[in-house]
Amino acid sequence: MARFLMKLSYDGCGYHGWQKQHNGISIQAVLERALETFAHTYIPITGAGRTDAGVHALGQYAHFDYQGRMQPEQMLLAFKRYLPNDIKVLQILRVSPYLSARYQAFERSYRYILAKEITPFNRHYTGYLPHVNLSLAPMQTAALQLLGSHDFSSFGRANPEIPNHICDVLSLTITETAETYEFLITADRFLHNMVRRIVGTLANIAHFNLPPQTIDAILSDACPRQNLVTTAPASGLYLMDVKYPVMLLDESAEANILETLKR
Question: Which domain holds residue 192?
Fold first, then answer.
């Protein structure tokens, strides 16, 4: 039995998110069905993150265990054959059996595209906040208050199963084009809806011409029920990349590798 790590991209429009569920089709379910078709047995696939319905990915990662003769190059071709055109496996690597796509990820990056105007052609691939007057400089200045390690309870959807709400935001940049504002954010981890709530909050700060210290007050409150925190639409969010310890990308890693990483 060997463990494999795949990198994939997908258009999230037609899916109810990454995770398998009873009320709709998911990215995970489609991938597992394709894998079962050519592996001739059911094999669970674990993703780096559970993206919501309508969220897209350019660099999602997932692992699975496979015992068979197919090599990564052959599996790539098989996935291409059995997957729909809105999901594409980009790379497959044989990795350490101790690597978990979800739990050993130490850095994740997202992009959010916020449209200035909604059109029939961008509505599935950008977010849009009606009746909100956006301005680049106030959002950029306020975004600086989010850098570093904070309790992001106010920016995450309440979830009693996740008691730790401390996240370390490594970078957050905002740029403007003729048609959009683009947010790039990298952190060691994210709470549920955290990126979308950050985008919505920065937009509100610009709209109401509030001081950047407003972010400090929201963080200090550590409560998801905030008047200024708006969850931006899922359609503008893209998972861009996930990083793992280099040692775990080596299939020959020894059994003590996890203890070494904790030091």
Answer: 129-232
